[in-house]
Amino acid sequence: MSKLRFRVVETAFKKRAVEVPIPAEPVSEYFGKYVFNRTKMFKYLPSKVYQKLTDAIDNGEALDRDIADTVAEGMKKWAMELGVTHYTHWFQPLTEGTAEKHDAFIEHDGNGGVIEEFSGKLLVQQESDASSFPNGGIRNTFEARGYSAWDPSSPAFIVDDTLYIPTIFFTYTGESLDYKAPLLKSLRAVNKAATDVCHYFDPEVKKVYTYLGWEQEYFLVDEGLYAARPDLLMTGRTLMGHDSAKNQQLDDHYFGSIPDRVAAFMKDLEIEALKLGIPLKTRHNEVAPNQFELAPIYEECNLANDHNLQIMSIMRRVSRRHGFRVLLHEKPFKGVNGSGKHNNWSLGTDTGVLLMAPGKTPEENLRFVSFLVNTLMAVYHHNGLLKASIITASNAHRLGANEAPPAIISCFLGKSISDLLNHIEQNDNDSLTIAGKQGMKLDIPSIPALLIDNTDRNRTSPFAFTGNRFEFRAVGSEANCASAMIALNTAVADQLAQFKKEVDGLIAEGNDKTSALLTVIRRYIKECKPIHFDGNGYSDEWKEEARRRGLDCETKAPLIYDNYLKPETIAMFERAGVMTKVELEARNEVKWETYTKKIQIESRVLGDLALNHIIPVATEYQTCLINNVYKLKSIMPDEAEELSSRNKELIRDISQHTSYIKKRVDEMIAARKVANRITDEREKAIAYHDTVFPMLDEIRYHIDKLELIVDNEMWTLPKYRELLFIR
Ligand code: ADP
Ligand code: MG
Questions:
Q1: Are residues 76 and 97 in the same domain?
Q2: pLDDT tens, 4-32?
Q3: Which residue has its alpha carbon closest to ligand 1 atom 14?
Q4: CB atoms < 10 A from the CB of 704, how many?
Q5: In the structure, which protein residues have their CB atom closer than 6 angstroms to any atom of ligand 1?
Q6: In the predicted model, is pLDDT for residue 218 greater than 90?
Q7: Residue 18 lies in a domain
Q8: Are residues 566 and 671 in the same domain?
Q9: Are the beta carbons of 150 and 124 closer than 8 angstroms?
Q10: Considering every ligand atom, which ligand is closest to the CA of 301?
Q11: Claim: this prediction has a pTM higher than 0.70
């Protein structure tokens, strides 16, 4: 019975690092080799077309069709020189992954042969069946058309023999069914609102970029062990498994030396990523055994997000070459840290200024404080929404456990920024001695110098200021970053627009610009205080305190999603032109449905494993014990009572655990049946959360007890000590 487990463990243990061919040339030479970037555009497009295309990318100018034909021709020529035969529109449906359908370049040539063709029409737009993707009921099957449309702001790239064209995905009636379209709209909204605010400080600013630098955490598991764990294979996490005696207690994995097999995987992954223009920079061991992290240099948000989606798919592919499977699930193992994806977010101008970085002059610092305080206001007023943007059935395991931010969104600022805000708040206009533009004396302590003293980190904060950016740490490792970025960008854009309105109002009343800015900023500092928390986010006192402050403390994912449909939230998304009520409602349907399905699948897998792996093995071991008791009695009738007492106890324990498991699995099936009859997706998700989900852990508890009792030789499933420590 246990042969499979021992074979896979032994095989995994013996594996050695795979040799990775390292390119002879330096990275700078092969970086972006498979990307249709500006260098390639310049080379493969006529200069007028190049000009128009880069104009469209930089300034959002509309592209006309004949340009598209020439661009398509240039792309095809470049791609074919690299052996490409197919192309695909690549988009981001409301699942965790991406979607693609490959078509060959070939067309009939009219003489019985074929020629390679790729027209502007095919580049710009394609039609597909929207009803087969999550659509929240927007698509009736009788009008199931969906369209993908080229996003010129993210460059096409090549994987294997296929040219990938990043696209948005929407319905026949124009509602978005993806992450990219609303992300682009939210970036446009931030650009507009932030540029307007920048003009208080520099009229030359033409554009504000949103930057994203994601840090991706993940686990690696040997593929043999993975294959022997149906729960990992089907749900991405272990639904059972007793803690191994050693896990992360010694803090000996974080930043430890990277194991050879893993280092080979990382190198291989990095080379592929760099060729795709993904600027990977950082790699290290994470806290949990077999947990790692990688991070690129930050980029413009839309591109950074495409790159993150690409990296997740490259990781899946490359890990197989090294005999690993990558786990992107937020909580693959109970009892050790889960995985997140920290989203480092900031704004910067086309004139090269990072708006979230303190400056050197009072004027620069006033600009910095404007953007900082508006971000705090946005996070404060939409803390529930931001939580809704990151919560999923899988990320819910992570939040609130003692390893990740709690299920309450708050902002960490650190001592120097907190002092700075207090200082501004407490000094009234007089003491700031604002004497006209030139003479403005904004008595702000030298922030850059102070920041160096204050590089304190707060791992417990879900939204931490880290010197020149905010780090949204609650994002899940498996998530599309766009979900969080759409909510954050829209909230900040809306807030900045409000700020501008208020400041302009004061200026119109005759106040000078600086005092108008300071007056509003001061009011905001007071107003958004409840979101500012530098203490320990893991503590129970914080939960109490947060409730008193009126922050969203809801922990049930299906209810957290309600934040998207609050009237003020819908109004905000509509004002910013990011999403309509119909789109928001449809997306929530998808969120509830996905939540239900995830728990449903976990419940089925656990039920099956309990009945056909765990109970049979436990019963077999119990039979061995029973035989032993009988035989003891026959050879040593006088002492048998005493000698077999331990075994009898185990026999009883096993019976108790197995009958509990059987009973609970039956109840879980019944609970699913009840929940499945509910037609309202929200109600169904709540039922799954309240009735089915808790049983998973209750059943698991007894299975994990059995794992400790049953003969190790008989246990079929690889154990935590094997999954987490073989590398
Ligand atoms: P840490 O683990 O210390 O938080 P990492 O080096 O792992 O930091 O990752 C930090 C991420 O933040 C990187 O992707 C980095 O490029 C990014 N980053 C740095 N500055 C900014 C910024 N101004 N805006 C957005 N992202 C940034
Ligand atoms: Mg890091």
A1: yes
A2: 899 999 999 999 999 999 999 999 999 99
A3: 213
A4: 18
A5: 211, 213, 215, 282, 295-298, 344-346, 354, 468-469
A6: yes
A7: no
A8: no
A9: yes
A10: 1
A11: yes
